[in-house]
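hiii so um. not sure if this is the right channel but i have a protein structure encoded as tokens and i wanna go backwards to a sequence. like what aa goes where. can anyone help
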């Protein structure tokens, strides 16, 4: 069940007693100016803006073409149950969840109670995604990654390093209400002894802060197109990340091919060069042949884009 707050915004019933939801809905429903109105208005504006940036990042990541074995404008990649339209619908359906995460986190500090609230919103977001996609897992990893970053961005100063650090603090806190069953990613992490999405988050997203963002900025400065710069960022992440999506679908053979193929593109000068572009297309064919796609790297590219958008958006300075 849901409680209507505004025509375009819904709060899960389990969240009705959260301070952020209660204060916001009371102010809107009464229309009375009171001492906390300005803060409530600022909180809602920032939350809506961060949610918009997160959805924008997911859509831009999905539309980036050509990506190796991932859904893009050329097709579904290695995913027979996905399409670009489905990815975009899924991204849009997550807007209210990201907004609610930001509302809950506004000017807070990482805490166990906040972690529990965010976990509940994340599970609601996952259910919304599954309803929208007819059961397809379009963005489960992105809900975790971008949810943490959106929440951290709502807490205070918004440099990418500060946001990633606070997101890491949140990720290190246990979610006592989380379901006990393992995901495909956690099983791959256990089997192959890699850190996975949880470890990446708990470390403060090093593949975003030390690889994705620097390569994105460097490629732009060197004159690459925006598409080439974003592809370079994706490939740089792929060349380093122990991607559990690849491990789950294709084992070590797929992971090694992705890493060596991505590194080869860079050795050839990146996607702005003719040879680098040819190697990117070859990598796409090879991963399709292994029926494996770098979904974890794609999630971290979306995180890279989100932090890049945020750093260049004055509306996120609270």
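sure thing!! here u go:
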């Amino acid at each position: 069940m849901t409680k209507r707050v505004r025509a375009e915004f819904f709060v899960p019933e389990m969240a009705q007693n959260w301070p952020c939801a209660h204060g916001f809905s009371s102010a809107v429903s009464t229309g009375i100016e009171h001492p906390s109105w300005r803060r409530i208005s600022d909180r809602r504006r920032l939350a809506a803006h961060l949610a918009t940036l997160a959805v924008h990042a997911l859509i831009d990541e999905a539309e980036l073409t050509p990506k190796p074995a991932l859904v893009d404008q050329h097709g579904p990649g290695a995913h027979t149950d996905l399409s670009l339209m489905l990815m975009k619908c899924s991204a849009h359906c997550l807007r209210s969840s990201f907004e609610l995460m930001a509302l809950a986190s506004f000017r807070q500090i990482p805490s166990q109670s906040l972690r529990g609230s965010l976990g509940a919103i994340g599970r609601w977001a996952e259910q919304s995604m599954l309803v929208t996609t007819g059961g397809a897992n379009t963005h489960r990893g992105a809900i975790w990654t971008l949810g943490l970053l959106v929440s951290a961005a709502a807490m205070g100063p918004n440099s990418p390093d500060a946001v990633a650090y606070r997101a890491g603090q949140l990720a290190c806190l246990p979610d006592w209400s989380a379901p006990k069953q393992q995901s495909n990613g956690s099983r791959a992490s256990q089997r192959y002894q890699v850190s996975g999405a949880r470890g990446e988050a708990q470390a403060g997203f090093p593949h975003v802060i030390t690889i994705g963002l620097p390569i994105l900025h460097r490629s732009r400065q060197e004159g690459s197109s925006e598409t080439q710069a974003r592809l370079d960022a994706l490939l740089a992440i792929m060349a380093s990340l122990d991607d559990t999506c690849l491990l789950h679908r294709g084992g070590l053979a797929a992971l090694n091919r992705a890493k060596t193929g991505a590194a080869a593109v860079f050795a050839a000068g990146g996607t702005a060069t003719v040879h680098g572009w040819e190697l990117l297309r070859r990598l796409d064919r090879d991963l399709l042949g292994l029926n494996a796609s770098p979904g974890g790297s794609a999630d971290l590219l979306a995180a890279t884009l989100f932090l890049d958008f945020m750093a260049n958006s004055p509306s996120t300075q609270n």
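oh and Residues 116 and 177 are 7 Å apart (CA to CA).
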